[in-house]
Design brief:
alpha/beta, 262 residues, nine-stranded mixed β-sheet, Rossmann fold, single chain, 9 strands
Length: 262
Amino acid sequence: MTTLCAALVSLSLGIPIAPLTSPQPPEPVKLLIITGDHGHDWKTTTRVFEEFLPETGRIQVDITTKPADDLTPENLARYDVLLLNYKDTANGAPETRWTDANKNAFLDAIRGGKGLVVFHHASSAFTKPNWEEFEKAIAGGWRAQGFHGPKHVFTVKKTAVSHPISDGMPSEFVHKLDELYQNSMIPPGATVLATAYSDPKLPRGTGKDEPIIWVATYGSGRVYQNVLGHDEEAMSSPEFREWMRRGVEWAATGKVTASPTQ
């Protein structure tokens, strides 16, 4: 009523009324996918990310396949969050190899508040010898002690923890044919958001609820690790995709905007 009265008074006095405007949606978070070398099919998995992550309009995706050129303080400053789809191998081209300057720029960016998403086998990068500070920054994972059995279908279960990434998500979902990572390194202070039971009746089964998705911090940076997604089929799971979108947004901003389907 107050608004209506004010509008009538304005009309009677000949005062123009400013049009009502809808609030503008927030700017999408700027994501840089770091790839270019891997023991897995990084070209296909990166393409899949490039296709589905921007679908909601919340994430803008750039890609570098040349970390030696692009892991610089100046370039990383352009982004809100980084996604690792990378593992150093003996076959990597010179432009994929991280120099000491690249390594320092990466750590400084996360430590200074840049978000980080660690995808699947990227947590095995820089082992033998082990780069200990990288291990801390990415919140552990596969490293040198992880393993898995044959790919199979399994159920992913949300833990009881309340967190912006998992709040509102289904309590569990049946995941596509994928590798179930086991014996992952979970550092002190990390929070596990989802697990999957490793059936001891299956090859290499542990009989444990294995951590699948967890979060941590490194300095001022938010870190999200998701070990699902070995290949394009595994990445086609709608639940996997929503967990990844939410993880990217949380790592960048500390908040999550629910998708229209949630």
